Amino acid sequence: DAKTTQPNSMESNEEEPVHLPCNHSTISGTDYIHWYRQLPSQGPEYVIHGLTSNVNNRMASLAIAEDRKSSTLILHRATLRDAAVYYCIPQNPSGNTGKLIFGQGTTLQVKP
Amino acid sequence: DAGITQSPRHKVTETGTPVTLRCHQTENHRYMYWYRQDPGHGLRLIHYSYGVKDTDKGEVSDGYSVSRSKTEDFLLTLESATSSQTSVYFCAISESHTDTQYFGPGTRLTVL
Q1: Per-residue pLDDT tens for A68-96?
Q2: CB distance A98 to B33 below 8 Å
């Protein structure tokens, strides 16, 4: 299982972009990179995932380095509701468990 | 939101008593998972199911058993609860092992 390194915490101002980095230098060639977040007192929720190309959806963008050893989750305009713990999770699709390995994640604080 | 409910949402019990937590889904997803979340740890997989009566162990399965007699329900049983099992328990579902996982609201269990 690939190891990940994320900053423990980050701060942002409301309505400004936020770039959340993740280092996954031991990722295998077939691992997808998933991002989940966990709002206070809630279960985790899916944000976005990708393999090699940058990805966009209504919640965020995911920029994946060319060597795939790191990725960055981009929130284009942070809102107070985006305050959460963000987890970067490599997942090997060849396994049959679907197991997600959650690290410590990055706690994002959003200031009004 | 995915149709996942967990019951009970909160429970306080005493050491040595049996406890059963229930996860119920209305999405007809094949995969179901039980995770626990403790301070200082990310979510850790306890057990998972890949179909009716098909279950397997996760990374922290000692002291837990599971059952899945129908698609919509996945039960987690602590045969004899211990204080080390005080935790927040999350259920998750997914269509396949590579698909997005949707998490329930969690059950906060306290073992005195």
Answers
A1: 999 999 999 999 999 999 999 998 877 66
A2: yes
